[in-house]
Amino acid sequence: MTQPGAPGPHASDGVAVAAERRWAVLVGIVIALLVAMMIFTGLHWASMPPSRVETVDVRTLHLRGEFVESNLGTTLGSDGKVTVRLIAQQYSFLPQCIVVPAEMPVTFRATATDTIHGFVVGKTNANTMLIPGFVATFTTSFRQTGEQLMPCHEYCGTGHEAMWGRVQVLPPAEFLAKARSAGGLACVPR
User: Fold this and answer.
1) In this predicted model, what pLDDT tens digit does every residue of 48-76 receive, in sequence order?
2) Close Cβ partners of 29 (under 8 Å, ≥ 6 residues apart)
3) Fold of 69-181
4) Does the pTM of the predicted model rise above 0.85?
């Protein structure tokens, strides 16, 4: 028998249901806020792309401009800046092997001709995606000398697993001597 004035066996159920409703409303608000942020961000970037977007015409890429075959590979500018230009196309990188200096900033400029590709250089932070018609640019430096692999890390078709390049990292003095005696450096002679 229950005492007069004591809460019934189901009085705590009402408190639990109210607490669950508050949490459900809070979670619903958070989800709605996240969806609204995704929609706003998507529309904003679609109408106002990042200002540093560079485009190229993939149909004439090999005929004129920055990415003609004679301009690919590693170059040492008159200002001392090292620039690597490369093209990704289904199942190969052009050039297949590049030469870079250790302990010096190296600017990569790359694009793709046919589909989305990407590359990562060994165990470094050199990692980018290559989209046809757009130029990917980043600057990095290599700490250790030696040869490193550069695989394509975006699935690009049935021959994707064979799409590899190589990066030879030379000591700065050796690199500078080679760069001053030749135009564009690559591991494979032209």
Assistant:
1) 666 677 889 998 988 888 999 888 999 99
2) none
3) Immunoglobulin-like (2.60.40)
4) no
